[in-house]
Amino acid sequence: MLSLAEMLQTNLPEAFRIKLELDGDSHILELLQNRDLVSGRPWLMRYQPDGIRVVSEGHTLENCCYQGRVQGHASSWVSVCTCSGLRGLVILSPERSYMLDLGPGDLQAPPNISRIQDLFLPGHTCALRQHASGPTQAPLEQPPGQRHSCTRRRRDVVAETKIIELVIVADHSETQRYPDSQQLLNRMLKVTFLLDTFFRPLNVRVVLVGLEAWTQRDLVEISQDPGLTLDNFLRWRRVDLLPRLPHDSAQLVTATSFSGPTVGMAVQNSICSPDFSGGVNMDHSTSVLGVASSIAHELGHSLGLDHDLPGNSCPCPGPAPAKSCIMEASTDFLPGLNFSNCSRQALEKALLDGMGSCLFERLPSLPSMATVCGNMFVEPGEQCDCGFPDDCTDPCCDYFTCQLRPGAQCASNGLCCQNCQLRPAGWQCRPARGDCDLPEFCPGDSSHCPPDVSLGDGEPCAGGQAVCVQGRCASYAQQCQALWGPGAQPTAPLCLIAANTRGDAFGSCGRSPNGSYMSCAPKDAMCGQLQCQGGQAQPLLGSARDLHWEVLEANGTQPRLNCSWVHLDLGDDVAQPLLALPGTACGPDLICIDHQCQPVDVLRAQECRSKCHGHGVCDSKGHCHCEEGWAPPDCTSHVRATSSLTTGLPLSLLLVVVLVLLGASYWHRARLRQRLCQLKGPSCQYRAAQSGPSECPGPPQRVLLMPGAKQAGILGFPAPPSRPLPPDPLPKRLQAELADRPNPPTRPLPADPVVRHPKGPAKPPPPRKPLPANPQGRGPSGDLPGPGAGIPPLVVPSRPAPPPPAASSSLYL
Phi and psi at residue 9, in whole multiples of 5°? Predict the structure, then answer.
């Protein structure tokens, strides 16, 4: 057995075990390399003294981070990195959490192990001030559990794994604090690893796609004002970083101290936005856990998560006194390691409302490396990987070999896999998540659902009250209801204009880089802060800090208006107030873009729509989704179809769908024929079970099964019919005679008690007195006459049998 020092001096293993003593008890950590942490082609960017950027594209970071569990503890998890010593987290249970810290020079000594609840960060309160309540129309307190009252609609989109492609930017002060470039990269790698650990219970993975270090100078102004720093960073991200390195979110890490208690800032509900998806974070602690938790907090705001309410309304697991969750508003201890139930519900609601279309992209392929079965990542040579043997619940995957079990086509974690078999092409694997989203369909040859696509920018939605922008549809009324609950509506136009032209906390068109509020021009008032009326007394997001009343004189004969405006406080770490979303209608053929009321033509939707020749709409990828009866890619070919054809479902796959439907129809017909045979009698059931044709016997061979009657077919005596039989065919020599006979009577005559063929004994009349207990001549069954009983003679009918009753019997099939 190697010591820790000897193990770290060799090449990093794919898996290993460590024996540790925690509170006097010996434990074994089982660890596997986290292969999901770094994408296949991360970009490493640094700057030379002459200012030239050096980009290492495709360089593979040394992945020194591991994940796993504590042997013998089913609910435990471990996250450690060996980049420089041994540092990380060991969670035995919600009440027993430890942080490991062992520097590279102390590998022979026992590691420094601290309980999480003993870690204190003096002088930091998670960047948020306590909200003071002002005069309001109604009490601001809200019953527990009503803060995030979202509908619990469980769909695959909630259970499906989402991926945040992250870029971390270290400013010049951070590179000066860690002048060794490898030390800096290792620290950022550990931060990303912890972020992935925090978000994994939400079915969200964090993947590092790039690291940029401003080694020579800051590329934007970094100041003690977090709002100004965020505005500068987001502008640089949109203009410089995003065009050369696609990603979902960028986080700036700085050693500069922000003013007051602020340690970070982000824009609420901004993930996937090219303008606002980012944050700034102060590296306020030597502990990697501290800065990672702060970044997780700001990423949570980008995902639409609000602060957790104080008290027990959003319970968090963990030991006291540091019993806090990541989205808690303030804490004197390290931020928590978990997201609360309130955060989980808020994320579910945001996803079901169409947020985060960029999060459904699949991970890029990793470069070829030695495979390790059990690390929950499918590597070259593996067909599946369900983790440790004790944790694997996939019936399709052999956890010892990481190969599919015999007969399995796919692993069960794929959305296009059911009962270990691939779903057919065209099966809907991801439903539309709103007015602006489009459903996705299985390709038929993969267990993965295609990337999420939505309607293109500028396509109308919400009954013409808004247009789609970045996959989201938001009319003004919908935004009011999302903020104030059911029943909320836009305030009166005069009140709205009066509020947003004020340029203060009650109404504005956002904040300037220096933090001051900007007033709206009257024509842009609809694109400023949301001004609503009705709904609940307490907003669902943030808190109502103050309320302002004003009476406005209306023009003409209209009565005076009583207007009320709310100062909505989202916290100091949220950069902007809640403004009308891009795409909100602000007039005829006018929409809100960049907080200004502009013509809808600026989105150039008609340009893209013209490619579909009037028979389809554009999606977010610039492809046509054709109407029913028109074929992609440009919707010019007329085809016969029963559903709309899109570029997401190629014609070759549609052919497969048709063949599958034909096969299903043939199978259903065979099953129906077999069912008919079962209803017609045992002889048909027997024939259908034989090898060869399973055709049902013809009408002369039918056996009628009478309800409640005892079957005597095995003895050659079928049960008597319960109603008259249909007329028998007459010989040709009698047809002439019948032609001369008079018409049949108008009333039906009773049927003759005769049949064409021997059907069994005539039914005797009921006895006039009790029969003996054991009469002679009866068989043991007591139901049929004995062998000596006579069979009545056949009688030729003297006239045709009356026609059958008008109502058909369900027994004649």
Answer: -80, -20
Residues 566 and 666 in one domain: no
Question: Does any domain span residue 152?
Answer: no
pLDDT tens string 416-452: 999 999 999 889 998 888 888 888 889 999 998 888 8
Residue 614 lies in a domain: yes
Contacts of 708 (CB under 8 A, 6+ apart): none
* pTM of structure: 0.58
State the DSSP code for 550.
E
**Domain, as residue range, for 661:** 652-689
Q: Which of 365, 395, 423 finishes a domain?
A: 365
Same domain, yes or no: 232 and 361: yes
- Among left, alpha and beta (phi > 0; psi -120 to 50; other), residue 76 is beta
Q: Is 372 left (phi over 0), alpha (psi -120 to 50) or beta?
A: beta
pLDDT over 80 at 136, yes or no: no
Sorted by sequence, the CB contacts under 8 Å of residue 313 that are 6+ apart come out as: 144, 145, 147, 342
- Does an H or E element contain 618, and which? strand 616-618
Q: Read off the pLDDT of each residue in 735-761 and give the average, rounded to a whole number.
A: 54
Of 538, 569, 603, the one marking the end of a domain is: 603
Q: What CA–CA distances, in Å, run from 603 to 147, 521, 616? A: 36, 22, 18
Q: Are residues 633 and 503 in the same domain?
A: no
Would residue 578 count as lying in a domain? yes
Q: How far apart are CA 732 and CA 730, in angstroms?
A: 6
Tell whether 506 is covered by a domain: yes
How many domains are contained in the chain? 4
More confident residue, 10 or 762: 10
Per-residue model confidence as pLDDT tens digits over 576-602: 678 898 889 898 889 998 889 999 988
Residues 472 and 482: their CA atoms lie apart, in Å, by: 14
The confidence band for 229, taking pLDDT boundaries of 50, 70 and 90, is very high
Same-domain pairing of 644 and 663? no
485's tokens:
């609950």
Integer angstrom CA distances of residue 75 from 66, 78, 86, 99, 375: 17, 10, 22, 17, 17
Sign for the pseudo-dihedral over CA of 746, 749, 754, 760: positive
Q: Which two tokens stand for residue 83?
A: 């980049």
**Where is pLDDT greater, at 657 or 585?**
585
- Name every residue whose Cβ is closer than 8 Å to that of residue 52 and which is 6 or more positions away in sequence: none
Neighbours of 98 (CB within 10 A): 20
- What phi and psi values does residue 552 have, to the nearest 5 degrees? -110, 140
Strand partners, 549: 564
Same domain, 517 and 640: no
Q: Residue holding tokens 């909200």?
A: 131
Partners of residue 32 on adjacent β-strands = 15, 67
**How do beta strands 397-398 and 403-404 pair?**
antiparallel
Estimate to the nearest angstrom the gap between the alpha carbon of 717 and the chain centroid: 64
Same domain, yes or no: 627 and 543: no
Residues 595 and 584: their CA atoms lie apart, in Å, by 10
- DSSP secondary structure of 591-613: EEETTEEEEGGGG-HHHHHGGGT
Do 254 and 195 reside in the same domain of the chain?
A: yes
Please give the C-alpha separations between residue 164 and each of 63, 280, 365, in angstroms, as whole numbers: 18, 17, 16
Beta strand 264-266 pairing with 397-398: unpaired
- On whether both 191 and 265 belong to a single domain, the answer is yes
> Minimal CA–CA distance to 316: which of 306, 308, 324?
324
With contact defined as beta carbons under 8 Å apart, do 511 and 518 qualify?
Answer: yes
Beta bridge partners of 529: 579
Sign of the CA dihedral running 491, 496, 498, 500: positive
Question: How many angstroms separate the CA atoms of 429 and 550, rounded?
Answer: 52
Question: How confident is the model over 477-508, as pLDDT tens digits?
Answer: 988 998 888 999 999 999 999 999 989 988 99
Stretch 263-281: mean pLDDT, rounded?
89
| Residues marked as catalytic | 298
Query: Nearest Cα to 523, choosing from 506, 504, 500?
Result: 500
Burial class of residue 125 (count of CB atoms within 10 Å of its CB; 0-12, 13-18, 19+):
middle
